[in-house]
Amino acid sequence: MSRRSGEPIPFPLRRKPVPEIAPRRRGRPAGLAATPGMPTPAQAEWLRRGLDQAGGKLPLFWEDGRRVDPRSIRGCMDQGWAEPWFANPLKPDWIVCRLTQAGRDAALGLDPATGDDLDE
């Protein structure tokens, strides 16, 4: 059986259906905040961890040793929930931050604009 170059190689057709790798879900993705202007679940957890630290210092790593995603840190800084504390001369790419008052409110589930509880 000879084939010319450039012709596709014929493959047999699949006879059985292939299951989806991941089922499709409708609605909001899990990583988004419940309401606009509020932190995502990962950001809220990160902010809560700074509540019981001296000066509101926010951690660089999660409890399991993974580094906190710099995009989450910058997102919190952009929203005003965290502010840079100091530059680390040994690790200049690490962003050392502390909580702001708006960050404390967001971590506690309060409306950052008014300070009122969002559940009421």
Q: Layout of SSEs?
A:
Elements (H helix, E strand, L loop, with lengths): L40 H9 L20 H10 L2 E6 L7 E5 L1 H7 L13
Helix pairs in contact: 1-3
Notes on the protein architecture:
The structure is a single chain. With 120 residues, this protein is α+β, with helices and mostly antiparallel strands. The protein has a domain at 41-107: Arc Repressor Mutant, subunit A (Orthogonal Bundle), CATH 1.10.10. It has three helices and two strands, in the order H-H-E-E-H. Strands 1-2 form a two-stranded antiparallel ribbon. Helix 1 packs across helix 3. The longest helix has 10 residues, at 70-79. The protein is elongated. The termini are far apart. The mean pLDDT is 81.
CATH topology of the domain at 41-107: Arc Repressor Mutant, subunit A
What is the rounded distance between the termini?
76 Å
Physical arrangement of strands within the biggest beta sheet: 1-2
Strand-residue proportion: 5-15%
Element string (H = helix, E = strand) = HHEEH
